[in-house]
Amino acid sequence: xxxxxxxxxxxxxxxxxxxxxxxxxxxxxxxxxxxxxxxxxxxxxxxxxxxxxxxxxxxxxxxxxxxxxxxxxxxxxxxxxxxxxxxxxxxxxxxxxxxxxxxxxxxxxxxxxxxxxxxxxxxxxxxxxxxxxxxxxxxxxxxxxxxxxxxxxxxxxxxxxxxxxxxxxxxxxxxxxxxxxxxxxxxxxxxxxxxxxxxxxxxxxxxxxxxxxxxxxxxxxxxxxxxxxxxxxxxxxxxxxxxxxxxxxxxxxxxxxxxxxxx
Length: 263
Known about the structure:
Blueprint: H1 9-12, E1 15-17, E2 58-68, E3 72-79, E4 82-89, E5 98-102, E6 105-112, E7 117-124, E8 128-130, E9 166-167, H2 169-174, H3 176-179, E10 183-197, E11 200-206, E12 210-211, E13 214-215, E14 218-222, E15 231-245, E16 248-262
């Protein structure tokens, strides 16, 4: 599931205070950009000034109950020892599912006319995603730092020699410590795309390299919009053991990549 967009919820959601206007405790001023049509030559426009890199701002919650209103979805969730309610623009949700959200507008003593009930504590959330759709929601990284379970099972063969200075994924992943912090070039086929998450776009590439009979996968972040299935060369900075919070880590990842050429 992609991020649920609906910053308007902060202003137009139909809640009313029991005795007075709701008290705003915490305000989330950031806004998540909508996905835009894929265009490899166009940069994505970042939304708001706050990136999701601040781990403490990302909450991982488990759904205990779901209430669907006409325009909004209410979730009773747990985080650690806390149990509370959040509300977001209408979306699909089931008991037991895990969601990630950022920030939120905390309000107290709200009465929902639609449900004829009062919520002691309610967070209005505009940036929320099912944990399964988080760009880092792949299985535990193997020792070589790769992961490919959530990327399409594409058999790809890329002529690395056609791209000057490009590294094979097998070389990069095997010797990731050697390339940590360096700007390198890789080439491959884009097998998975998640646009507009954490103010950046996320892609996975394969180049034909394999480990134990499975394609090696490299996750790349970029501001550019890259179509699924594109065969491209990219240049970016290699980071290892990257932790994005909420339990999602990468053994190796390329960040701030730019497209050099098509293949």
